[in-house]
Amino acid sequence: MDPKPLLLPPGMPFSPEDDPYGPYVALSRGQWSELAEAVPWDLDADTLARLRGLGDPTDSDEVRQVYHPLTQLLNLYWERTGALYGTTHDFLGINHKQVPFVIGVAGSVAVGKSTTARLLQELLARGPRRPRVDLVTTDGFLYPNHMLEAMGIAHRKGFPESYDRQALLQFVIDVKSGKSEVTAPVYSHLSYDIVPDERIVVADPDILIVEGLNVLQPARRRSDGSTALAVSDFFDFTVYVDARTAFIRQWYIDRWMALRSTAFRNPQSYFRRYADISDGEALTTASTFWDTINGPNLELNIRPTRGRATAILRKGENHQVSWVRIRKV
To answer: What is the C-alpha separation between 154 and 104, in angstroms, rounded?
Structure first.
């Protein structure tokens, strides 16, 4: 199948952000949805509401038209990859349990990658073989705030250097190696920090989803010229949730403003001080956070990894997926 031309809304000029080229099959939402077979794992309204992020409009049509085909493709990858590992172990004479299938989900702040990861976890777990599907976000591998302050990079939280990349790498290696129980740190969006002495336990998953801003980062080159391992080296399938920068910026600001009357009202919230400022001050603050932290991180570190993904879900201004690219090589 040849890549399809991108269908942009009337009057919208083409941008390098819309680059249609590369080793991908590009399908409109309609073409993509036609690939899905009838499946028995629809999500009810309450479940969908629980999985959606604040301000995310993902509805049952989006689940059927976008996430059902993606879940079916992931099931194919899981089955075929498991068979390949099994054949390899037979060849090597290794008597070993099935290797966990690891999925990476990447994308900008506010683009909806967390909703995508939760939907995939829910749908995959409802598949024919009822696999055990665990989800871990890389937020737990951020350095604690006191360490970021000591390192002088508190203003770069979310940038690659703000993560304990070695700990994250070891976590994924341990899961992929078949370790029966692996733990990960816990991050609180309320306190905006790592929760001391609390861990997430991952025990013998069939499928593990790792969601985060920078999970598709390539391996770094060491000072001696050798190349280190990267978390992405251990992924079997990757998803990048994409949209134009201008759209994501607006979604970020809209979400930040909405949080002022919800989570920011909690006395324990790190952002409590922003709940009572004026709307004008809040808008300026949110815009500054985007323009000085999240926007630069997207352009410098996150979007450059888009071409490494197996699947790219491209959203339009309405926050819904308008077309999909699937890697063909």
So the answer is: 26
Cα–Cα distance between 325 and 187 in angstroms, integer? Answer: 32
Residue type (1 letter), 201: V
d(CA 8, CA 18): 9
The pTM of the full predicted model, rounded to 2 decimals, is 0.91
Kind and range of the H or E element at 324?
A: strand 321-327
- To 5 degrees, how large is the angle CA 245–CA 249–CA 250? 120
pLDDT along the chain (329 residues), means of 10: 48 56 82 78 84 86 93 92 85 81 97 96 91 96 97 96 96 93 95 95 96 93 80 96 96 94 91 92 96 97 95 94 89
In angstroms, the CA 256 to CA 277 distance is: 13
The DSSP secondary structure of 178-232, one letter per residue, reads T-SEEEEEEEETTTTEEEEEEEEEEES-SEEEEE-TTTTPPPPBPTTS-B---GG
* CATH class of segment(s) 18-327: alpha beta
Residue 79 host element (H or E): helix 68-92
- Give the bridge partners for 106, in sequence order: 240
